[in-house]
Automatic annotation (TrEMBL):
InterPro entries tied to this protein: Asp/Glu/hydantoin_racemase, Asp/Glu_race, Asp/Glu_racemase_AS_1, Asp/Glu_racemase_AS_2, Glu_race
Cross-referenced PROSITE patterns: ASP_GLU_RACEMASE_1 (PS00923), ASP_GLU_RACEMASE_2 (PS00924)
Gene3D superfamilies tied to this protein: 3.40.50.1860
Keyword annotations of the record: Cell shape, Cell wall biogenesis/degradation, Isomerase, Peptidoglycan synthesis
Source organism per UniProt: Terasakiispira papahanaumokuakeensis
HAMAP family with a match to the protein in the record: Glu_racemase (MF_00258)
Protein name: Glutamate racemase
Pathway assigned to this chain's UniProt record: Cell wall biogenesis; peptidoglycan biosynthesis
PANTHER family: GLUTAMATE RACEMASE (PTHR21198:SF2)
Length: 281
């Protein structure tokens, strides 16, 4: 890979909402001196209910515009839906490496003692064929229980905006998992869900292995960029990019805490299928 241009941001982490911040946290832990920008397509959030062809076109348009603005040398698609649908197009057309996310089936199989694993994710993720392929490749001797939870995505968004979920709400979401006594490992299969990991652990009636894809993504980023600086020096502040205004003060504070001191907006002039035009303000 070519050296990054001076002043360029080596990594752009992208999601439809704030879930990708869990990937940011994992990269920060692994490579604290690596500069990053974060972008979330909040004007089109959530991605899970959008037409697939429209979504692929939109993700390409937004990412292409962001690359022009940031000069990023690598893109992380920190969204399972966008990774599944848009990665082939992005890798074919973009000039920089693109890293996607998949449910952490392999690490879950490595830690499970009972060989019974729960996948907690969105409905789109738990039903996609690639989950079956991951099980065949990395966890053929395990039993996978699939649990879909769209509300957990919204709860994570609200938590970052300063409204943490009620414990009884999280207990209700975990109840079907806890009803299966053989499960000892829970895969947080949406990047939003690790943002609620501590809260979920606090209400769970049993002790589980909680796994997600953050560490694996961070390792892949380090490999692609040839990162060998593990010093504790924090990178210079990055920019948080949005596609709609952000007015929640708690979210802005959370972004600042994670190293994004300013926020800029890409505005969509037309969100209609097949006709996506973006400009920055």
């Amino acid at each position: 890979m070519k050296p990054l241009a001076q002043g360029a941001c080596p990594v752009l982490v992208f999601d439809s909402g704030v879930g990708g911040l869990s990937i940011v946290q994992a990269i920060r832990r692994a490579w604290p001196s690596l500069p990053m920008d974060y972008a979330f397509d909040n004007a089109a959030f959530p991605y899970g209910n959008k037409p697939e062809d429209w979504l692929v076109d939109r993700v390409e348009a937004v990412i292409t515009s962001l690359l022009d603005k940031t000069g990023a040398g690598l893109v992380v698609i920190a969204c399972n839906t966008a990774s599944t649908l848009a990665l082939p197009r992005l890798r074919e057309r973009l000039r920089v490496p693109v890293v996607g996310v998949v449910p952490a089936i392999k690490p879950a199989a490595q830690v499970s003692q009972t060989r019974s694993i729960a996948l907690l994710a969105t409905a789109g993720t738990v039903t996609r064929p690639y989950v079956d392929q991951l099980m065949q490749d990395f966890a053929a001797d395990c039993r996978l229980y699939r649990f879909a939870s769209a509300p957990l995505v919204d709860l994570a968004e609200q938590a970052l905006a300063g409204h943490p979920p009620a414990p009884e709400t999280l207990r209700h979401i975990l109840a079907p998992i806890e009803a299966q006594s053989d499960i000892d490992t829970i895969i947080l299969g949406c990047t939003h869900f690790p943002l609620l990991k501590t809260a979920l652990q606090a209400v769970a009636e049993r002790t589980y292995h909680w796994v997600d894809s953050g560490a694996a993504v961070a390792r892949r980023v380090g490999d692609l960029l040839g990162v060998d600086d593990v010093s504790g020096n924090r990178a210079a502040a990055g920019v948080a990019w949005t596609t709609a205004p952000v007015q929640q003060i708690h979210l802005m504070e959370a972004l600042a805490t994670l190293g994004f001191a300013s926020c800029r907006q890409l505005t969509a002039l037309d969100f209609n299928e097949g006709d996506i035009v973006l400009s920055s303000v």
